[in-house]
Amino acid sequence: MAEADRGRRILDAAADLVLRWGYKRVTIEEVAKRAGIGKGTVYLHFRSRTWLFVCVLMRESLDLVDELVAAIRRDPATVQIAEQVRLTYLEVQRRPLLRAMFTRDHEVLGDLARDPDADPVREWRAALAADLFRLLREHGLMRTDLDLAAQMYLVGAVQTGFYLQHAAPGSPEEVAAVLHHTVRAALEPPTDPDPAALAAAAPAVLERYQRFRGTVADAIATQAPQGGPA
Asked: In the chain, what is the straight-line distance between the N-terminal and C-terminal CA atoms, in Å?
């Protein structure tokens, strides 16, 4: 079995088990058994039990970025913040592990939900968001009457509320539409976006996402959580 394939099998096994049993109960022995390999082989790929599950969470972030990148390539209008928030919400609802990450579900993630060092992507994700907000503001795709920090706080607070509210009034698609409306009304200009501005912003947004993706993928491959997107 190729080394990369073995690493993916280990991550797949760990992701499945943490959703079934929760982080506290999953051992390296169980992961190895599920992956069909020896315990020592797991440690050849991941330096510790904690780091294995950190990599599981980082891989979820990569999958989310891949979905957003694909959407922007299909339609440059997807660079708008309300649309990105809508698509992110739908991905979170479809992916139980991603949902546990965004809601910091202690039942699933245990100490990983509360330890900032266990999620290096959190800091990188915040830096990416700030960079994207600046780009959208520069292209006239976000309002500028609120400062950047206030806009980031607003989006984070609104997203968290939608993720944590269990009595959703409708299907995930309907709730995502309400979230889209809320963010658009708060942060985007009242007029329809200029197609030229969307076309100009899309390559820059894609470049930021690809840079973020490379940083996270490198961290998984090298087991080096320090640093962030250059």
From this structure: 34
Q: What is the block-wise mean pLDDT of the chain (230 residues), using blocks of 10 residues?
A: 80 94 93 92 88 91 95 97 97 91 85 70 88 97 95 95 84 95 96 95 97 91 52
Q: What's the confidence (pLDDT) of residue 230?
A: 37
User: Is 90 in the same domain as 164?
Assistant: yes
Instruction: Return the pLDDT at 204.
Output: 97
Q: How many domains in the chain?
A: 2
- The stretches of the chain forming alpha helices (DSSP H) are 3-21, 28-35, 39-45, 49-74, 81-94, 96-103, 106-109, 120-138, 148-164, 172-187, 195-222
- Would 52 be classed as within a structural domain? no
CATH of residue 7's domain is: 1.10.10.60
The whole-angstrom separation of Cα 212 and Cα 186 is 26
Whether residues 98 and 12 fall in one domain = no
Asked whether residue 176 falls in the same domain as residue 205, the answer is yes
Q: Token digits for 172? A: 């995930």
Find out whether 19 and 57 touch, Cβ atoms under 8 Å: no
> Do 8 and 77 belong to one domain?
no
Per-residue model confidence (pLDDT) at position 102 = 86
In 3D, which of 175, 80, 64 has the Cα closest to residue 121?
64
Domain membership of residue 39 as a residue range: 1-45
Q: What is the pTM of this model?
A: 0.88
CA distance 14 to 186: 39
